[in-house]
Design brief:
By secondary structure, the chain is an all-alpha fold. It has 4 helices and no strands.
C-alpha cells in the first residue's frame, strides 16, 4: 500500500511541476517571443501549450486515480476503474505522440526556412564578392588596405 501511495504522490507532484514549467515557458513566450512570431509559429506554440497542459492534468488525474484505486473493492468496479485509468494512460501517450510529431513537423519547417535564408545570404555574399573583385580589377588599383601595406613597406 505504501508503494501505491508513494507512486500516486509522485505522479501528482510531477504533474504540478510540469504544469509550472509549462506555464513559465508560456509566460516567457508571450512576453519575449510573440512580437516577432509568425502566425504559424504562434499557432504551433498555442497548440503545444494546450496539449501539454492537458497532458499534465491527465498525469495528475492518474496519480489521484492510483490513490483512489486503493479503496475500490468490488471486483467488477475494480476492473472498470482500472480500465478507465488505462484509458487515461493511453490518452497521455497519444498526446505525447501528437506533441512529438507536431514538433518534428514544425522544426523541419524551421530548418527548411533557415536553409533558404542561408542560401539567399550566401548568394548575396558571393554577388558582393564578385562585384568587389570586378571593381578591384577594373580600376587597376588594389583596395585601400593593400595600398597602405605597400606604402608602409617602401623604405628610403
Amino acid at each position: 500500500m505504501i508503494v501505491q501511495v508513494t507512486f500516486a504522490l509522485f505522479l501528482v507532484v510531477v504533474a504540478v511541476l510540469l504544469s509550472l514549467r509549462t506555464w513559465a515557458v508560456r509566460r516567457t513566450y508571450l512576453t519575449e517571443g510573440s512580437d516577432s512570431a509568425s502566425a504559424a509559429e504562434a499557432d504551433y506554440f498555442d497548440r503545444q501549450f494546450r496539449r501539454r497542459t492537458l497532458t499534465n492534468g491527465l498525469i495528475g488525474l492518474v496519480g489521484i486515480a492510483v490513490f483512489v484505486g486503493l479503496w475500490v473493492n468490488d471486483p467488477q468496479a475494480v476492473a472498470m476503474f482500472w480500465m478507465g485509468v488505462l484509458m487515461l494512460v493511453v490518452a497521455i501517450l497519444a498526446l505525447a505522440a501528437a506533441d512529438m510529431f507536431s514538433s518534428q513537423r514544425f522544426f523541419r519547417s524551421v530548418r527548411r526556412n533557415v536553409a533558404v535564408e542561408r542560401a539567399k545570404l550566401e548568394a548575396e555574399a558571393e554577388r558582393l564578392r564578385a562585384e568587389l573583385r570586378r571593381h578591384d580589377s577594373g580600376n587597376g588599383h588594389s583596395p585601400p588596405e593593400r595600398q597602405r601595406g605597400k606604402e608602409g613597406s617602401n623604405e628610403l
